[in-house]
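Internal ticket - ligand job 558, zinc ion:
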Amino acid sequence: MCKLCDEGKPQDHSGSRRDFLKAATATAVGASLFASRPAAARDDDDDRRGPPEDHGRRGRRYIIRGGAVMTMDPSMPNKGEYPKADVLVEGKKILAVEQNLHAGGADEIDARGKIVMPGFIDTHHHQFETALRSFLADGVLINDGSGTPSGSTTYFEYILLTFAPVYRPEDVYINELFGGLSQIDAGVTTVHDVSQIHHSPQHSDAAIKALFDTGRRAAFGYFESAGANILGTNPGNQYPQDAVRIKKQWFSSSDQLVHMIMGGEVYLGDPTTDKSWTIGRQLDLQIAAHILSPFGIRPIFDKLAAGTGGNGNIGIGPDNLFIHMTGMSNFAWQKARDLGAQVSISFPIEMNMRHGMPPILRMQSLQMEPSLSTDVECTLTADFFTQMRSCMNLQRMLVNQMILDSPNGNQNLPNPLDWGLPESAVTVPGPFPYWPKPPADIPAPLTTRDVLRYATINGAKHLRLDGKTGTLTPGKEADILILDAEAINVAPLNQVPGAVVSLMERTNVETVIVAGKVRKWKGRLLDVNIPHLRRQLENSRDYIFAKAGVPQNLFSSQ
Ligand SMILES: [Zn+2]
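stdout (structure tokens):
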């Protein structure tokens, strides 16, 4: 309650307390405020307790007791949803999820009043851009000649061609580390880090080391050296052939938190596509690529879908993870689906930066489901509550308007004025003439469970990690969130998926566990010196801006 008292230097609070009491007794409500003191004192004791001893160590057990448990595994008893249950962890694995578990002498984590669920999984995040956070809050993808703030300071010209080329290995390391720790703090226990910053093998090793040092589950995405192809710079660039060394040196074991994905960007030219996809497949790696119409990718992707990509015989397969998939043809979509490719959607970024409409309705019509990805913090937060809410709200905006428009003929044709009802809207019989019954061909509005599935198990499947994470299924590794459902912005708890998706944010992420190891405890990251790391990140930021020749301006429209 008082920092000085807590530190063993008792302070006299009687004056202020007496004044408060005097005011409080004036009203019954005020008096009842004070009655909560003993409970608050007990909570304080509980808050001071540390995490279970030796958490995450082989054979060491602890039990998360009494929370509302949402396993995200519908094949489990009760569809994997328990109003009150216990989760037993041994070493790095989940041993059991049941009501009233007996756990012998296992240490206990009190999860009463909390929600216990799997960690979030981000299937596409450029962590190397952490030092550029909010720089491009107004910008779209490419300079559009409009002269507007959004169209002038833009992603392609500034982030990829101006800032990225000046990064040193030490910049890569601190950017990756800080961005990763920040996401652990927000409950994102797995990431696919799309690092396009491989100007040399030293840059690659710095990115990989940072992912390991962060101590969360990650796919290291070995992408290109940003700007090198276009600017003809970065002579140390060894992409894509250095993938062979990287895989051998860092990823010969599958029993570690970090694994490798091959970046196979298709807008770098057919010879590069040919080389990166071939190397990736020789190394038995997944191949990921940004697929979006603004960079001219639609015809390139059609060729890949036809099996004639690259130099003529590169085709889509189940080993592909495609990012965005905005603006692609019907033919390519059908092929991507039939051939088993996965799709990651970055809802907020795609809406904000003019990638095109996030293809959620398209995916629903093809019986496909996306995973979610945060993309870039130079423009928007890497927080997953934002991801889930943006996804759900965008899909609902589309289908709700389609339903309202449905009596007017083609519900897919928006009114060019504001996408609302046309002037001559057709009405329907019944008490609400402007409230038609949803036609059968319009997808159902997404639910909170849907977007939670996208944010957890779909991400695990799309990174080939569903044997290890994505649900709280016994036998999987323990990537667990304990969320505070008693917080002032959430209580009272009435619906678990709804509370998480509709109400929560980072401050509700109380405890975060990765492979059995507690990384955030009672609201605070463990084993990290944030001020020290922040200073390193600020130094890196200062270097990057200076070297790139971009002035720092806290109130610019950049
Ligand atoms: Zn991206």
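Auto-summary: The longest helix spans residues 384-405. The chain is about 35% helix and 20% strand.
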